[in-house]
Amino acid sequence: MGEKVMVKGTEAIGEAAIRAGCRVYFGYPITPQSELTEYMSRRMEEVGGVFLQAESEVATVNMMYGASSVGARVMTSTSSPGFSLMQEGISYMANAQLPAVFVDVVRGGPGLGDIQPSQGDYFQIVKGGGHGDYRLPVYSPSSLQEAVELTIHAFDVADKYRTPVVIFADGMMGQMMEPVEFPEPIDPGTIPEKDWALTGAKGREARYVTSFDIDPYKLEKMNLELQEKYKKIIEEEQKWEEFMTEDIEVLFVAHGTVGRIVKSAVKIAREKGIKAGLFRPISLFPFPYKRLSELSEKVDVVMTVEMSSGQMLEDVKLAVLGKARTPFYGRLAGVIPTPNEIFEALMKELRR
Amino acid sequence: MEKLQQDAIVLAKMPKSLNKKEFTYCPGCHHGIVHRLVAELIDEFNLRERTVLVAPVGCSVFAYEFFNVDGTVAAHGRALAVATGMKRARPDLFIITYQGDGDLAAIGTAETIHAANRGERVTTVFINNAVYGMTGGQMAPTTLLGMKTTTSPYGRRPEKEGYPIHIMEIMRELPGVAYAERVKVSKPQDVPKAKIAIKKAFYAQLLDLGFGIVEVLSTCPTNWGMDPVEAGKWLDENMVKEFPLGVYVDKVTEVMKEKGVK
Amino acid sequence: MMEHRLIAAGFGGQGVMLFGQLVASAGMIENKNVTWLPSYGPEMRGGTANCTVVVSDEPVASPVVDTPSEIAIFNIPSLLKFEPTLEEGGVLVMNTSMIDREPSRKDITVIKVPANEVADELGVLKAQNMVMLGAYIETTKAVNVESILKALEKKMTGKKAQFLDVNKRAIEKGMKIAREQLK
Questions:
Q1: Residue A228 C-alpha, separation from nearest chain B C-alpha, in angstroms
Q2: How far is A264 from chain C (nearest CA, A)?
């Protein structure tokens, strides 16, 4: 680790990607992530990498498909409407088993929506916005330091499991500044060679990377391989944070920047004598059901807070399975909930 | 027609860059001829070990299985974006996209024009048979006026379905293009000409000059409802009128001469 | 536990973002936990700008603040918006060159800074935000002036370096104004 530097969220993620050995970036401008694309246009030149502004998000994701299939560590960054346009390509990449990292700086929707922070794309990102039976590992950071670490981790997970990975960020994370320590950069030359990549059939049989098989039995086999992989990811890649959960009476569940805001609400509640705690899923797929289930046995109320109408709430309910009440507090369309209003929402629920 | 194809096969040996796998294309379809030309050129340039082929969605979706080179299938229309990603990440590879008219000139128009305009160092073989083959003969962007298809049952009318799109004529306006030519392979004497065209499109990439594309007017006897010989004749009489053959962009020949390559 | 929750607000161009960044950077230099969040809500409209800074001994929980412990106010709309949100006993530092009215709260500490006049006297009107900054740190002790100056030196490089000295003097003037009012 080097010294602490004050950086913007967009830059923190971009620099983390460079340090993870990413040398290929394709992107298309969209608020509120354009600064990341701008950062990469500057930095890729400096490190001898590839930066290309594509003609659309549709082209972007397919350029990623191309670069990934020849073995490159590749990334893009976009925001909600752009991520919608990438869904077809992501589905193709999932079945072609192509690693890549997508940063989705989620904004208010649906439609053109607005440019403020939101978590309203949870279903799309976590449950799969494209066609077919696939899942994507998804990480939701709540601080810039964590964003740096998860971005680097995302490249490793992508390569290890041969899958696209998503960093679920929001506009608040993109715009805010915080001190960050960057780890030492990885030399891209030291990243293990990919024995499936399309590098030219030199001294070996020709190989294909494809999401296609016209024979349903063969395609089913491909599908089962994917499912096997997802099972392994569920077993090995769950991440979460527990905040003041040792003696809880009530439990909040929130992810990303909201998770961070809820920490302040927990502190307010504790000052008033309510033993609140926070469970913050960091990996949204795989969702840490088991641990949340265990915690929910200790409390009567598990309150989910999101910048959405209650999408992660469905996963929370699947974990709690009726063992506790599962109320919800959310703000929509880019309105950020504040610590006091979250605390008030909890009080209202406890008075019921 | 069938006889001619047979003769061609007898005259030459199987290219290394083709698999032993039998083509699954319909009788009289031109994909087979064009596949062979591409494979022969890969062999002649000794490129097999660094070629990656991007197949499209369409009849030639299986192209990557017929070629004995590394390959993939792009999403419908996105072959040139995929090719861009490959070439940018690995400039040492030789990248070919093989696309039909629906893929390249309808759903993938944006990717086609922007890859061409950026002068991506990739080579595109564009099969124009004026119809969507794989999905069963629907109207294509290149369907001729008056031509009946399963989605233009009254014949293509300009006031309703618009006009056939001319990709080579568009390519002429894009500075990133180093080579663009429209050819056909409906008669035996066309085939060597088509091969020279594709060779120059290869050189556009190999000599780092820009984007290279060859449009091959092709038959689709099955969906045109004709036998192979009729289809070839129909192509010569109708398609060539709408889509004039010839070189539209050539920044290659002169450099070839300078460098003394053939 | 020490935690400063600051909102700095004014018109775009008054340097409120830099004001906040310098506080955050100074906090980082002092090894404190800090966040800086620019106005990123619906309030972005209308040409006003604000940023929220948290400086804390502990890891910062919410970078979003609804009850600031201190506010630095550069214009009337921001006074109207943020004065009611200020924590009981909180600190209001206001630029009286721009605000010709009195705050309505009686339960807070108010520091009045004629920042534009002071900066004008120094010959660089733009340095009014530094006068405000000096008054702010003197009043709240959120960060030391030494750290602010270090942060400023890092920020003002190249062509901007020529303004370092006048900015330092502006900060000192602001500190003096606050000191006199706090007596």
A1: 23
A2: 5
Express each pLDDT in B182-214 by its tens digit.
999 999 999 999 999 999 999 999 999 999 999
d(C-alpha B101, C-alpha B92), whole Å? 28
Would you call B73 helix, strand, or coil by DSSP? strand
Of C42, C62, C65, the CB nearest to A263: C62
> For residue A117, is the peptide bond before it cis, meaning its omega torsion is within 30 degrees of 0?
no
* Cα gap C8→C36, rounded to integer Å: 11
Alpha carbon B171 to its chain centroid, in Å, reads 14
Query: CATH number for the domain including B91?
Result: 3.40.50.970
- Count of domains in chain B? 1
Residues on chain A bordering chain C, Cβ-to-Cβ distance under 8 angstroms: 4, 6, 32, 116-117, 143, 171-172, 175-179, 257, 260-267, 334-336, 338-341
Instruction: Sketch out chain A's domains with CATH numbers.
Output: 4-236 (3.40.50.970), 241-351 (3.40.50.920)
In tens, the pLDDT along B127-145 reads 999 999 999 999 999 999 9
Using CA atoms in the order B56, B61, B62, B66, what is the torsion angle rounded to 10 degrees? -30
Which among B112, B116, B181 has a CA at the least distance from the CA of B141? B112
| Predicted-complex ipTM score | 0.94
Q: Shortest Cα distance from C150 to chain A (angstroms)?
A: 13
Q: What's the CATH number where C125 sits?
A: 3.40.920.10
Q: A110 preceded by cis ω (within 30°)?
A: yes
**Chains B and C touch, using 3 or more CB pairs below 8 Å:** no
- CB atoms C40 and A4 under 8 Å: no
- What's the domain range around B49? 2-259
Q: Which amino acid belongs to residue A159?
A: D
Sequence-distant (≥ 6) Cβ neighbours of residue A332 within 8 angstroms? A108, A118, A120, A307, A308, A309
Smallest Cβ–Cβ distance between A55 and the set B51, B87, B114 belongs to B114
